[in-house]
Amino acid sequence: MPAPVISPAEKAYIQDGVAHDCRADGRSRLEYRHLVLESGLLSQAGGSARCRLGETDVLVGVKVEIGEVEPDKPNVGRILCNVECAPSASQQFEGRGADDLNNTLTQALDRIYNGPQGGFDLEKLCIIPGQSCWLIYIDAMVMDYAGNLFDTIVMTTRAALQDTRIPKTEVQDLGDGEFEFDVVDDVEEAEPLEGWDDSPVVVTLYKIGERYIVDPTMLEELCAQVILSVGVNKHGQLCGTQKSGLGSLEPSLLSDMIQTATQLALPLIDKLDTKLHDDYEKELDKRRKGEHVEKMGFFAAVI
Amino acid sequence: MLRKKTFVKRTRKGNVIKVVNEHYLRDDISCSSQLCTKCPHFKDPVLSTLPRSTSTLPNHYLVPDTNVFMNQLDLLEHNAIKDVVILETVRDELRHLSMPVFNRLSTLLSDTTKRFYLFANEHHKDTYIEKLHGESPNDRNDRAIRVSAKWYKDHFKDHGLQIVMLTDDRANREKGAAIGLKAVSVTDYVKGFVDVPELADIVSHAKDANAKKEDIMYEQHLSPTQIQHGIKKGTLFQASLQVSTHNIHEATVSGEVDGEARTIYVLGRKHMNRSIQGDIVALQLLPASEWKRSASMAMEDSDDEEAGVGDGTDMTSVQDGPGEPTAKVVGIVRKKWRPYCGALARKSVHSKPGSTAKETVIFRTMDRRVPPIKIQTTQAHALIGQRIVVAIDSWPVDSMLPLGHFVKVLGSSGDRETETEVLLLEHDVPYQEFSKRVLADLPSEGDDWVVTDQHVHHEKRLDLRDRNICSIDPPGCTDIDDALHVKELDNGHFEVGVHIADVTYFVKPGQAMDEEAAGRGTSVYLVDKRIDMLPSLLGTNLCSLRSNVDRLAFSCIWEMTEEGEIVDVKYTKSIIQSKYSFTYEEAQTRIDDERMQDDLTRGIRRLNKYAKRFRAARMARGALTLASPEVRFQLENDSQDPVDVEMKELKETNALVEEFMLLANIAVAEKIYKHFRNSAMLRRHPSPPASNFDQLRDVLHEYNLDLDLQSSKSLADSLNLACVDGDSYFNTLVRIMTTRCMMQAQYFCSGTESEPEFRHYGLATPIYTHFTSPIRRYSDVIVHRLLQAAIDPDAVYGKELTDMAKMKDQCDVLNHRHRMAQMAGRSSVELYTNLFFRGKTEVEMGRVIRVLKNGFVVLVPKFGIEGIVYTNAHDSPFHLEETSNQLVANDVTIKIFGHVKVQITVEGDQDGMRQKMKMQLVEPVVPGVSVQPTLKRALPESTIEETKKAKV
User: Fold this and answer.
1) What is the pLDDT of residues A90-129, one digit of tens each?
2) Number of structural domains found in chain B
3) A62 and A109 together in one domain
4) Which of these ranges, B119-133, B276-290, B815-829, B901-915, has the smallest mean pLDDT?
5) Rounded to an integer, what distance in angstroms lies between the CA atom of residue B836 and that of residue B633?
6) Between these two residues, B935 and B941, which has the higher pLDDT value?
7) Which end of chain A is more exposed for a tag (fewer CB within 10 A), N or C?
8) Nearest chain A residue (CA) to B10
9) What pLDDT band is residue B111 in, cutting at 50, 70 and 90?
10) In chain B, positions 342-371, which contact chain A (CB-CB < 8 Å)?
11) What is the pLDDT of residue B946?
12) Is residue A173 less than 8 Å (CB to CB) from chain B?
């Protein structure tokens, strides 16, 4: 696997650009690339979304299944994550080349959703305590990789969770403390996943030289000494941080970066939610009139 | 145009999957009217140019909604209803709601005279609609129906044709009217058919909201999930409900109590909880303290229409002793409702003759195990005395009886043709003529088919045409399945051959004829006719082993020593020529006539000698000789009316044929089981549970007799000992009653039972099958195929012989058909018995075979009939002594085996009911119960044994 490489000249050019607040593609340090987001494009999935941030392209499908509760947690459901980088996304993912990255991303995603910071009330995913619960499978597929992968994955996942509908269940009391449930076959009856809007987005800051940037391209990523991912929810609450990269951070810079991340996250969440909400309203409106709803699907990439 | 349809499905393992179907819309779907020139017609249009009009509506096409099909299918099947557009939406809904209805709809659609057209509205670009947000699937489908009806309306607006949407949903009618549709209810629609008044009766009354609200009479059934769970947990169990023929409020199911297979009773209407004969029900076992003894009550007809449900105990004798396991029905897993034959109860018709007002009347089913059905009719008076068919619509909790509707008239009751049709319908016997498709599978040569060189030289057939083969059958038999021969060999041994008609040469798997035969399962023998399993060209000609023509056969050939020891057996396809078709009587005469010394006769004598030897050996192994009171009618040639009745007589030659058939069947069973361990079709006869004999043994104890149930051998021995001096019929009677304690023999697939279970109890053989009558039994056809596959290494056979599940299903079908054929045969005998007794009054000696609380069952050996003598239910001088199982009135005791003299009459049609034989007690004389015989003929007074009661 050829590792991505960068020449000293390129590196110097990028570092200089960051220092002057004018990056190679003309953005400022805390500016995002163009974002395309659409949810509900996979009709077979419980929920789905696709996001294209610059050239980075992520598709997330959510599958809901019925499973048995774990004996030590008899009244909660589970969220299970999996991230996979398509070999076509980048040359370095060929063969088993993406395994490490897949594991890292899967674990990171898992940490976000399995815990109170994820925003979900896992007890609501329990159907019959001690017996059955919903399992939410989040499957993220990286279709194209051009930097800032994790932020994109989390954003897409959040949109997919917004789109997710859980089939309605009707629990029957059979007496003697025994319960059984039926699943309503009408998809219209299915209910949205509560708490999706409390789930965080992640803003990852990349320290290049003395400054940090958001939403790096692939080459910019290669120049970063320190990478700090910050999870923030719509209330501005910090939901988790993760530091990677070989460099070190001053405590003052750390708190400065967290603050910046929070400030960036709030308008981002707002924009995303507005977009998702508008799309949903438009769709509902069409369906009220009995009109056919077309999804852009993969044509969205062209726009 | 591409659309998607999405729904959530639960998998068998309990998980959920979201199913998304792609759905393509078209612009070339035709309206299929002969009027229309706009649509592309790829096929000839179905709907006529001039559909009918009614008194209220101009010429119109009909667009019914789903519920009309669910509830009023009989109406739509009526000949007056034509030119109907069936929407795809409706058909899809029906497929999910009810498979039987869906199948009937498919039949309707394929009937070209009905002019029903399936309009694919779900795929038409103008009539496809998406489900609105918040709209229920039902509302969406109703809207789809309206949209399509509207499309049709607009489509024909220039032709002056009306489109009528038929729906009983008022909201739907109103919404239809709002978009300019003509929408009517079924009742209103039918009113327009002035010329076809019976249509009004066919309209079903599934949900009659106006009916007076009776009190809730039954417990609500549990939901399917609750039932499933209960069965899984073991609190409930599932079984098929078998209602007693004597008492409609008494039923049994087989189940387990404490791990032991037991017969479990369901007593009283309330506990039966709206289940009907044959329903698969979920039951809950009652606590042992509530167990009852079987009521031993016979229900007379027509005494209970409006009686209360009771708590189920009033019908049963309450007593403290240990009862039988008793259960109650908590839900119905699968309803076995079907159209029922029967007649109106005259008493329930209250209107004046000639009235055409609608009234509710009671319909009584022929099947005594099915409760009366309430129906509404305007033609009650016209229907009295007719045999009619009625379907059940529903049985709500607040109705004592199920509600139904009239379907059709079969004919007047008492008419032989009608009654025969009724009994065929009631026993689910397919009696239609063979279809063209089936007949097309017959050899094209027809009657001229002959055995050719091809058969002789190229099919591995043994040429046995030189053997002295003969067949022995009842007189008039045309479907000769089997023939026999014996030949002395050079080594002093004998070659004995059993030759069975080679049906499988003509009937190949996958043919329409094969499917038809598999569905029919067996030929059905009625008193006056036979319903064939195979077309008669095969059954009575090409397969039938008639004398002096070459025929193909499947032969079992043994080499035996002089003493009947089997040295060798082989199986082969063969060509034979029977030299003579004997009747049992002719064969017997030949055996007995010393002067006859030809080869054929000597052969029969030898076979007879062997047969006696085999029989003796079989008896020694413990084979049972059982008896059943079988009779034969002498029919008058022209009218087919019975003129005399006699008991069937068995000759030695019957036994001869039987022995060799058993020999062949057992040999073949061993052979096919050896080759097909998992998928051989065999026949077994389970040992009867000891509890079946309790009552009989109790009675026999009084005669110091007992039945030893250790094995069939010990039972056979004790049956031989069960004699009473001076009572020659006593032993036969015991055997008849023993027969009724037996289990039914069944076909089964060898892979579904363990080897010890293969046993045939009655024949005392470890393995058995049916091989010898392929013309009249389908089981034998399968066995022939299995045997062929077993003996011929080159035989090509499909999965049908090795698939255990398929074989098991086939066994189930055959068992059902077999039972039904037996019962139809019995009903036919009963019918002829009734015809025989019509207008006669006979006084005969009879034997008591069962004592009930309010009567007793009498068997009249002379006619082989049995009937219930009712001891006047209300004010009976009799009372039942439970311990000794006797009816006692002053100094007269009625007990099992007792002699009585009864008067037999056939009650006419006074109640519009089935013709019923009535037995009344003549002797012993009991005031209030017995009658003076109204007969002129003098009676032999010899054999009446006084049954005075001994001092208790």
Assistant:
1) 888 888 888 889 999 999 999 998 888 888 888 888 988 8
2) 4
3) yes
4) B901-915
5) 9
6) B935
7) C
8) A183
9) confident
10) none
11) 36
12) no
The size of the A-B interface in CB pairs under 8 A is: 68
Q: Rounded to an integer, what distance in angstroms lies between the CA atom of residue B470 and that of residue B582?
A: 7
Is B715 part of any domain? no
User: Which of helix, strand or coil describes residue A174?
Assistant: strand
Tell me how many domains chain A contains.
2
Confidence of residue B96 (pLDDT cuts 50, 70, 90): confident
CATH number of the domain to which B928 belongs: 2.40.50.140
Same domain, B405 and B257: yes
Question: B495 in a domain, yes or no?
Answer: yes
Q: pTM of the entire structure?
A: 0.63
Q: What is the pLDDT of residue B738?
A: 86
What sign has the CA pseudo-torsion B54, B55, B60, B62?
Answer: negative
Residue B73: strand, helix, or coil:
helix
Residues spanned by the domain of B463: 436-677+769-820
User: To the nearest whole percent, how much of chain B has pLDDT over 70?
Assistant: 89
What residue ranges in B677-770 does DSSP mark as E strands? 681-684, 746-749
> What's the CA dihedral at B469, B475, B477, B478 to 10 degrees?
80
> Half-sphere exposure of B35 toward its Cβ, with a 13 Å CA cutoff?
19
CA of B298: how far to CAs of A105, A277, B198, B346, B531, in Å? 79, 73, 36, 22, 33
CATH number at residue A232: 3.30.230.70
Task: Give the tokens for residue B589.
Answer: 């005469």
Q: Give the burial string for B735-761 (b: 16+ CB within 10 Å, else e).
A: bbbbeebbeebbbbbbbeeeeeebbbb
ipTM of the complex: 0.78
Nearest in space to A134 (alpha carbons), one of B228, B224, B14: B14
Instruction: Judge if A140 and A268 occupy the same domain.
Output: no
- Do B297 and B359 have their domain in common? yes
Confidence (pLDDT) at B379: 80
Q: Is A188 on the interface with B (CB under 8 A)?
A: yes
Block residue for tokens 């030809």: B598
A136: closest CA of chain B, how far (Å): 12
pLDDT tens per residue across span B618-662? 888 888 877 666 677 777 666 666 767 666 666 777 888 888 999
Cβ neighbourhood burial of B638 (10 Å; 0-12, 13-18, 19+):
exposed
Structural domain of residue A121, as residue ranges?
34-196
Q: What is the CATH number of the domain that holds B97?
A: 3.40.50.1010
- Among A150, A179, A196, the domain boundary falls at A196
Residues B654 and B562 in one domain: yes
Contact state of A167 with B134 under an 8 Å Cβ cutoff: no
Could you give the 3-state DSSP secondary structure of residue B404? strand
Does an H or E element contain B8, and which? strand B2-10
